Structures are given as structure tokens and as C-alpha cells.
Task: structure prediction
Amino acid sequence: MSKIGLMFDRIRWDEKSLIRAATKAGVDLNLVDSKTIYIDTSVNPEKIIAEYGEIVIQRCVSYFRGLHGTAILENSGIHVINNFNVSLTCGNKLYTTLALTKAGIPTPKTLVAFTEEGVYKALEKLGYPAVLKPVIGSWGRLIALVRDKDSAQAIVESREQMSNALLQIYYLQEYVKRPPRDIRTLVIGDEVVAASYRYSPEDEWRTNVARGGTSEPCPITNELENIVLKAAKAVGGGILAVDCMESPDGIMVHEINSTVEFRGLYSATKVDIPSKMIDYAVGVVKK
Result:
């Protein structure tokens, strides 16, 4: 069997479980710590493939580190899970929204502005409350529930003082009336392998498990399966966490993650997610 690489910048529970699953399956998993390596872009691609493997599972927590590493590896002919275009799209909330909208996937109404003046105009159009998110980020960080114009001004003025060009891209979404939960699903290839409800912790409206949210199993209905698979296809497919909300008009997709954290989903569903991920990578090798 060909060597499979696992590129990371932090060994979390998720990576440890993947290592155990690979060992159990007899897979030669090559561990690559992106913090300690360098890659010579002028080297013969065959040498890079020999060093990293024909397939690399990209697990970097850092979006930009993982994205640039993926670009170099793919340029050498290595198949990366997930590929560059998928990672680029899913790592940016605006790019994800554009892909979902183009594919006709229900998603929260989204407006984008680039200046203070534009933000206030957008909020008047969108209405309060609204949700302001950074275009790049995870774990619910820097996401704000904008309840009125005063809170909008405080948030925008703070952002304008930060030396971060990405925070001057104002990604605004409608506040969807939903139960105090969302749905985390995991797609591997063409299968929805697991789904869980994620509930907000006390005194918190965000449902991220990283912020103290709790999970319980969610049934994979035909409606959920169909919309999730369409959403995964819209961004390019692979191993993806597709997050959904139960709106008054039905299920809508609000985010897709390409570097999936699955500990909460595994705990809630007991689905052997690490083994399924390794099996998927082995299947890619065999094609």
C-alpha cells in the first residue's frame, strides 16, 4: 500500500484518533509536523512524493498554513484531502456562501460591505438583530450578534481600529429564528456518515462545542441528507463538516468546514469517524 501523509500543526484528540485508526488498519501513516519542516519548491516532485506520500490528509489548525502547504503539495502531484480549491472556499465564509448560493442551496441572507458607511446601509436593509462574522475564523471567535445601531457602531469602530484588512470586510447575515441548536453533519465522499444536534451553553447563543456547546445524535433524514450532499458537492467534496440550521422555511446550510474537528460528533454518535476517514484516504490511493 502507498504511504499516506498526515500534515498537522497540533496533535489534538482528533489527530491521535486518526493515528490509532491507521495503525489498526495497517496503514503506513507518515506524520508531518508543518511547524518543523520546509519544502523546496524547486525539488523534483518525485522526491516530495517520496517524502510525504501519494496522499496527504491536511489537518493544520492554521488556515493559511494548511492552504499554502496544500498548494505546494498539489503542485508536486500529491493528492491532498481536502484539495486546495475546497480548502480555499470553505476557509472563507463569503466564498462558501457564494458557492452555496450559486448551487441553489438554502443559506441565510447575506450582505457584504467594505466601509463603515456600507455596514450601516447594509444593516438598515437587513434589519436588526443581525449576525456579523469575520470572513475567516473558527470556533465562533469574533462573531457578534448586532442587536441595534448603537451596538453596530461600537463593533464597527473597534474593527476599524484593528490592523487587519480581513476585519474590514463586513460579512453580515440575517438572524435566523431557530431552536437553540444547529446541526453538525460529516460528509465523507458521497456519504453523510454522522449528524448531531449542537446546543448552545447557558447564556450563549452560539452553538460551537469549542465554546461549551453540547451535542446529541441527530437523525439523518432524507431532507437533511439531500441538502448536505448538495452543499458538499457545491464546494468540491471530500471530507467536510456541513453545518445546518432548522429555519421556519426548512433546513439551511450556514457553514462548511474543510479541516473537520470531530471529537464532539464522535462522542455524540459513537460513529467510528477516524476509521471512515482513513478508509476514504485508502480508497483514494487505490483509484
